[in-house]
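Late entry, written up from scratch paper. The run itself happened at the end of the previous shift, but nothing got recorded in the book at the time, so transcribing now.
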Amino acid sequence: MDVVSDAISAVRVGSPSSNRLRVSGDWCVRLTPYEGAGFHVVLSGSCLLLPDGGGDPVALGPGDVVLLPHGAGHVLADAAAGAAELRRAVPFEEVRDTDVRRTGPGPEVELLCGKYRLDRSRTHPLMAELPQVVHLPHRVGGHPELRTAVDLLARELDERRPGACLALPSLLDLLLIYLVRAWMADADTGAWPAVLNDPVTTAALRALHSDPAAPWTAGRLAAEAGVSRATLARRFTKLVGRPPMAYLTWWRLTLAATRLRDSDAPLATVARETGYGSPYALSHAFSREFGTTPGRYREEVTARARWRNHQG
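Output as recorded:
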């Protein structure tokens, strides 16, 4: 696995959901904060996205994609909406299942709106660094993989061909990966775009993520990156924010938490897969990091998952 794949896999739970929104005239809908990430794909027309908290409005046009990686509440409205209309925003749930909501003359707008379920208890710093709103406007020749995913999504929505029930969630998963990639390619600030542009740090991270259970030492990892221990420690710590072996410990425990959340594997198996010599060694490190035992952690996340499923 690579860092981006692992960063997404560590927090993603369940399957993404999506709804088409088709509106025209004067319209305004509110989406409440969500424990996950939201996204919108503008299939046709144009509109405004207004983040909660007074952020600048984002003008969206045909082919634009926007990701709200921290589940921030926001409003979607027609391009001419003013303060009065925003105060009368209709909950998204009231309009998402209608065919076309017409509230007056004006061009029709069609969006694909959806959510990814995320477990934020152990968010990778790459995902934590994403801004509240990632807007990727449609540009000819820009991010071809993302554009292809958007085109395929539109076709699956329109045609509902055999297999669409499997194709659509898979395409939505691809969309999240391409959105994160595109943000990293466009970002001119931020630690993690710089991390993954540094060949030494990237080589070390790739090695750790490819085999986190291996008996890594500072010397072995430096040899894998092709530099001295001192050089690796200096560059890795400066860019990532913690020394290589401290990052490895953190990542092993994050993987252990993910396995406890997503499987019923015995603690001995989880320990072996994450580089700990015994269940006791894993339990000691896990309790020090999380403030609870692996067994209690599994019970708590299972209870939260049941509650989320009950809430829909």
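The chain has a mean pLDDT of 88.
(Scratch paper discarded after transcription.)
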